[in-house]
Design brief:
Number of helices: 4
Radius of gyration: 18 Å
Order of helices and strands: EEHEEEEHEEEHHEEEEE
Helix content: 10-25%
């Protein structure tokens, strides 16, 4: 088992599904028996990118649906083109794992619109202002029962505005492990290896008193990120009936690259 990767490849099954072993670095802050949402999201994005890839097209919007707890176990990923097209096509990937009864089931699904690319350099425009640079950030002690193990400890953090601050939480973050042992991260895989932490970055309530698990993740990318660091500026709003929404902007060191939304289930402990 690798201590430098979230997943170890186990080969391809007779049905074409890729098989992986999940390492302890995928562990969630909510339970040490299930995975944090970020590594499975990145693995689904990897499958979307590898599914009938085209040099003239890229992912522009990805939706990750968490269908149930993703166990820290052997898993399978399957992908297909749902709606082919020359200019726009829809690609789907599913992550399967054994349930409590031993039967295989889908535990997460990713859908991605893949769009044909053309040169639009003359009209480049970024609506969101840049985030302060990585050098302006600082480290904080990521320890204790909620932040001191598993996936959270696999990341480098540089905080610009901390959790529960007034306004959006802001941070630069990068993964230390690779996604799959023996492979390099693509730029979009790198982004999805960390972007699910937006819910925690934007939180206004403390996990010792509340749980706030996101059930989905939607990212729109108008530009492919560049470099090792991914920036987040996000804030969660909470309704009166147990539902919240985290919304934010995603950055690389050159500026904004897209936006993120997550639906959050809020419960008192």
């Amino acid at each position: 088992m690798s201590d430098l990767a979230y997943y170890v490849p186990l080969g391809v099954g007779a049905d074409g599904a890729e098989r992986f072993s999940s390492t302890p670095l995928t562990a969630s802050t909510w339970a040490d028996t299930m995975q944090h949402g970020a590594p499975p999201s990145a693995l689904l994005v990897r499958a979307l990118e590898h599914c009938e890839p085209r040099p003239d097209a890229r992912l522009t919007r990805v939706v990750i649906e968490i269908l149930g707890p993703v166990p820290i176990s052997d898993i399978e990923v399957r992908s297909w083109v749902e709606r082919p097209g020359k200019r726009v096509e829809l690609v789907v990937a599913e992550l399967w794992a054994a349930g409590p009864d031993g039967a295989a089931r889908a535990v997460a699904r990713g859908t991605g619109w893949r769009m044909q690319t053309v040169d639009t350099t003359p009209v480049v425009h970024t609506a969101d202002a840049p985030l302060r640079p990585v050098s302006a950030g600082h480290e904080i002690e990521m320890s204790g029962p909620f932040w001191g193990s598993g996936f959270v400890t696999s990341l480098d953090w540089r905080w610009l505005a901390e959790i529960s601050c007034e306004g959006p939480g802001q941070v630069w973050v990068r993964p230390n492990p690779v996604l799959v042992e023996g492979e390099s991260l693509s730029p979009i895989q790198r982004l999805f290896s960390v972007v699910d932490v937006s819910n925690g970055v934007g939180a206004k309530i403390h996990p010792s008193e509340w749980t706030f698990l996101n059930t989905d993740l939607t990212v729109h990318l108008f530009r492919v990120p560049d470099g090792e660091w991914i920036g987040l500026s996000s804030e969660t709003s909470y309704g009166p009936d147990g539902v919240g929404m985290c919304a934010g902007v995603v950055y690389d060191e050159a500026g904004a690259v897209g936006r993120i939304n997550q639906t959050v289930q809020v419960r008192a402990r």
